[in-house]
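Re: the 398-residue chain
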Amino acid sequence: MTDIIIIGGGIVGLATALQIKQQRPHLSVILIEKETGVARHQTGHNSGVIHSGLYYKPGSLKALNCIRGYQMLIDFCQQESIPYELCGKIVVATRPEQVPQLHALYERGLQNGLTRIRKISLAEMREIEPFVAGVEGIQVPYTGIVDYAVVAEKYAQKLRELGGEVRLGEKVMQITQGNTLSVVVTDRATYETKLVVNCAGLYSDKIAQFTQRQDIDLRIIPFRGEYYKLIPQKEHLVKHLIYPVPDPNFPFLGVHFTRMIGGGVEAGPNAVLAFRREGYRKLDIDWKELYETLSWPGFQKVAGKYWETGLGEIYRSFSKAAFTKALQELIPAIQADDLVDGGAGVRAQACDRTGGLLDDFAILESERAINVCNAPSPAATSSLSIGLTVSEKVLARF
């Protein structure tokens, strides 16, 4: 019998397990991951940005955990000699009609305690990014870059050193609830546990269904984000990170430029519906999963609301020229020949039955389970803080 079983070997699951073992070393903790290594999905496919907390509604779980987690992450990287860089970014209004939203973003940043952000003119932007275009911007010196797969591997190492177990290559098939314990059945073993903690990311809703006595009222909708990389000869066009003003009605930040901690510059991502939950290529299709997405009433409402934006994203997915045009709003000198394929990631976006794309982290609790059911960006930046938040809920039961 195990005290706590954590499902999911991404950065949030690992951080949660680590926080539990650091606070209560005597509790037995097993983390189960279906892949043969940790950080194989969202953690290992993101752009590696250390987010400052600029975008998130003050007082929300995202804002609170990002701001706390930001410093926890930096402290951890320093303690463990993990390379990172606080290179800063600029958020750019490329058209006059975006300026009010830019100013609203600036005020939100101040509300979240980011006292060192500042509004900057085009001339000031070009001192930071000589090739950028726009009418006004915000300089955010807090923003950084890191390799989150390296961070996650270090979490796993520290967890093992504290006596926690990481079981790789095991897929959870079923969870049944007894009178006092839950039984977790994988394709390789059966476990009895006092508490299940679900950090399964793209499959978090599926795992949550196993732990609930009634249907949960949300589904994970997978959105693929596709990246290009700048050819080495054009990397000089981007010095730091360059973001557009986000669409306030769409839960994605828009295509942007990101310097990578290991070298190189990424451009993207777009946001298109993935035809399977782990569909990293355009033609990756799981017909059962696609049907589940398309038949979910909430997704149908999302599609009705965002169809025009969605068509634009799909067009950019298949048209390099359209993708280039979007990037040229920020850096006009970029040409299609400057871009090469840079891979893709899939974001687990929770959607409720009414068509709401959940904007905040969502943690659902039942009698013998805690389900982290929505943890998109900035979950990697926030991972140690989310882990602390979840571990407090866990330890309150022991």
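The chain has a mean pLDDT of 96.
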